[in-house]
Inverse folding.
């Protein structure tokens, strides 16, 4: 941002270097001439065609005035028959207030020269060293000299041009002449900056619209990317859950197998104990059965003996047959017991039965003898025999039942042992699986508690993997691209916000600068209007200066009003007033500005054109008075008229043509 208008610098009114002398060589009608000048008023007089205007034109050429270069060829300014011309300006460069006006020159004089050649080329020299035109312009601008400004240097015939220009052009000339151009330039700078800001604002808004469209697309991509990332995280979580679910299942399997093993082993112990009891009981029953069988054999023997004794031979044989039949039945029963009874005991029983059979034969012979005695004994023995047979039958049933139970328990033991071995094998396999899973569990990190079965987690994992597969086309750097765009759009927003804030500041600054500019111009008008009116009053005229309002600074103008012979003041233009009236008003306007013009040099050629003698004398007196009041300025006035110089403050130079060449002579008063 530029510095505040309140700090706008103003040029200090110091004595700038006056032109001490003009040297013309082969320039127009001058073959060689040295024209001395002083501070204050320099009046150049002489007849028409003598070469007066050439002096001011020479100054303009040395200054590089654009007017001259546009309107006439430089080669046309070279004296006829010559190939090169030179115009030199000698400036007073003596120290003033401890410094030289042109500080980089250490001499008391400073010479600026311009060379012109017939081929159209030209160059500048400063103290005999070639310099560029830009250096000349820079040097002149330091002292507020613009040779193109009609208020500073007005050539022959240009008084009419000053009256014909627009009020806007006139205002621009005034601003430059009095040092207000910086106000306008700052306004233009602010307007340019504002225009750039508005343009940049439009570009930023367009960029943001484009960016918003782009960001919307990448937002969708980014949302899908986040969905994919979420799914990937979920898949990783499911992977961990699957591992820990598998571990949980294995632990439960191990626990279940071990519980089953404990139960089976407990059951095996119980069955083994039952088998042992069944074996003991069957062994006891077996011994009891053998004992009963021995007792039965003895009873049978006793019965046989008694029957033999009781019955006769026939009866004995019949009885014996019966006995034998019964013995055979017993033998059949004993055969059934062979698989489970002790063979030795069976053999004894068999031998006993065989013996009983033999004995029965011999006993039967004696049965008859003891029939009566033995009837009671036989009946008793038969009753006892029936009881023993019942006991044997019951004992045999119990023995068989215990043996069956023993064998069943033995089978159950075998099955249980087989089941235990199978459970132990399963335990070993599951433990092996768990051990193999431990490295993966360690990589999986902290334990994840889950109640789900592995197959449930696996099914969800398949579903999530399928969803991820659908998002495989997403770029890997989607997040970076989206965030870059977001960063860019945020940057654009910040930049737009800052730009809009700056635009607001610039609008306020522009308004302030316009106010300052307008105030400065109005103050200038207020200051110079009385002088303008005073000058006009010397010729019996009235007038005013006012600011012609416009919508912009370019449309605002500097309006001059003038009225003659009691007529109300009207706007100065090429159609309302006569040439003389316009000349008087314009010179009065120029004189009103003299105290504010910053250029140390002011020049007018034929200011009195179209003026009558009375007005010419009156205006000249005002010029002379103004020159005295502005002692730091150097004024050059060129006129073909004979003017009565009322004092010796003016430095008068006469120009005349002698044998086709212009010659210069100082006349009357040396000035200051």
């Amino acid at each position: 941002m530029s510095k505040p208008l309140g700090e706008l610098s103003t040029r200090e009114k110091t004595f700038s270097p006056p032109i001490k002398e003009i040297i013309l060589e082969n320039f127009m009608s001058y073959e060689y001439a040295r024209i001395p000048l002083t501070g204050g008023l320099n009046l150049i007089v002489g007849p028409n065609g003598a070469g007066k205007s050439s002096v001011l034109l020479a100054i303009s050429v040395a200054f590089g005035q654009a007017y001259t270069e546009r309107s006439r060829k430089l080669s046309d300014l070279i004296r006829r028959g010559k190939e090169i011309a030179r115009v030199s300006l000698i400036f007073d460069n003596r120290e003033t207030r401890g410094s030289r006006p042109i500080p980089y020159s250490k001499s008391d004089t400073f010479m600026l020269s311009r060379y012109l050649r017939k081929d159209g080329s030209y160059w500048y020299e400063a103290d005999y060293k070639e310099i560029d035109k830009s250096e000349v312009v820079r040097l002149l601008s330091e002292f507020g000299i613009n040779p193109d400004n009609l208020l500073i240097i007005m050539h022959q015939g240009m008084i009419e041009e000053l009256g014909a220009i627009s009020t806007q052009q006139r205002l621009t000339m005034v601003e430059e002449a009095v040092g207000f151009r910086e106000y306008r330039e700052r306004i233009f700078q602010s307007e340019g900056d504002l225009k750039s800001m508005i343009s940049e604002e439009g570009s930023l808004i367009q960029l943001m619209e484009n960016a918003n469209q782009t960001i919307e697309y990448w937002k969708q991509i980014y949302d899908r990317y986040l969905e994919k990332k979420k799914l990937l995280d979920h898949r990783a979580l499911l992977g961990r859950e699957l591992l820990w679910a598998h571990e949980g299942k294995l632990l439960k399997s191990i626990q279940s197998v071990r519980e089953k093993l404990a139960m089976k082993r407990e059951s095996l112990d119980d069955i083994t104990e039952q088998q042992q009891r069944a074996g003991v009981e069957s062994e006891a029953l077996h011994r009891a059965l053998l004992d009963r069988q021995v007792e039965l054999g003895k009873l049978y023997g006793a019965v046989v003996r008694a029957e033999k004794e009781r019955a006769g031979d026939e009866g004995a044989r019949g009885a014996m047959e019966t006995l034998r039949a019964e013995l055979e039945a017993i033998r059949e029963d004993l055969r059934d017991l062979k698989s489970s009874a002790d063979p030795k005991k069976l053999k004894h029983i068999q031998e006993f039965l065989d013996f009983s059979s033999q004995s029965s034969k011999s006993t039967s012979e004696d049965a008859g003898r003891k029939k009566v005695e033995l009837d009671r004994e036989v009946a008793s023995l038969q009753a006892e025999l029936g009881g023993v047979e019942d006991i044997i039958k019951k004992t045999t049933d119990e023995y068989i039942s215990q043996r069956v139970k023993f064998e069943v328990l033995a089978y159950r033991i075998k099955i249980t042992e087989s089941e235990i071995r199978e459970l132990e094998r399963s335990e070993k396999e599951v433990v092996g699986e768990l051990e193999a899973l431990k490295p993966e569990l360690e990589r999986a990190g902290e334990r994840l508690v889950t109640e789900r079965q592995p197959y449930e987690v696996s099914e969800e994992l398949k579903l999530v993997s399928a969803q991820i597969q659908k998002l495989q086309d997403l770029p890997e750097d989607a997040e970076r691209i989206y965030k870059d765009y977001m960063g860019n759009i945020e940057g654009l927003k910040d930049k737009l916000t800052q730009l809009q804030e700056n635009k607001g500041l610039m609008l306020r600054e522009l308004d302030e600068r316009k106010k300052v500019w307008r105030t400065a111009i109005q103050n200038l008008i207020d200051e110079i209007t009385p002088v303008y009116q005073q000058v006009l009053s010397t010729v019996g005229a009235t007038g005013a200066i006012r600011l012609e309002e416009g919508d912009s600074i370019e449309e605002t103008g500097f309006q001059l009003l003038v009225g003659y012979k009691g007529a109300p003041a009207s706007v100065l233009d090429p159609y309302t007033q006569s040439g003389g009236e316009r000349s008087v008003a314009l010179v009065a306007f120029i004189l009103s500005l003299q105290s504010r013009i910053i250029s140390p040099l002011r020049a007018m050629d034929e200011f009195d054109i179209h003026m009558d003698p009375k007005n010419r004398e009156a205006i000249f007196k005002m010029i002379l008075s103004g020159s005295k009041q502005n002692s730091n300025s150097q004024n050059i006035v060129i006129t073909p008229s004979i003017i009565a110089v009322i004092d010796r403050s003016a430095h008068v130079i006469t120009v005349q043509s002698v044998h086709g060449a212009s010659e210069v002579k100082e006349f009357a008063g040396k000035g200051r």
User: Anything to note?
Assistant: Residues 1-15 have pLDDT under 50 and may be disordered.
